[in-house]
Amino acid sequence: MNKVIKINPADNVFVALTDLKKGEVHNDITLVTDVPVKHKFAESDLAAGDFLKMYGLVIGKAASPIQKGEHITTFNVKHVAESY
């Protein structure tokens, strides 16, 4: 059973389908934090100001650097919406 999903190939985040623990490896990404079910984690390192994509659309901007495998939270992301 898959424990994570990437919704769109253009996304740079994965979604946890179950509670995940720091140190677990999913899709060749070692988690650097715990990630609760239904929450996201970074596919790669992100610098402050980098955009986060989910559903193939921009869903937010990194408010601070985010490590590959780090939990995406309201503390490290400012939510923005991409107009289409």
Index terms:
single chain; 84 residues; mainly beta; three-stranded antiparallel beta sheet; 0% helix
Please tally the β strands and state the result: 8
How are the strands of the biggest sheet laid out side by side?
A: 1-2-5
Which percent bin holds the helix content? Answer: under 10%
How widely separated are the two ends?
34 Å
**If helices are DSSP runs of H or I spanning 4 or more residues, what is the number of helices?**
0
Low-pLDDT windows of residues: none
Order of helices and strands: EEEEEEEE
Largest sheet: 3 strands, antiparallel
Report the β-strand fraction as a percent range: 25-35%
Give the overall average pLDDT: 94
Shape: globular
The gyration radius over C-alpha positions equals 12 Å
Structural class: mainly beta
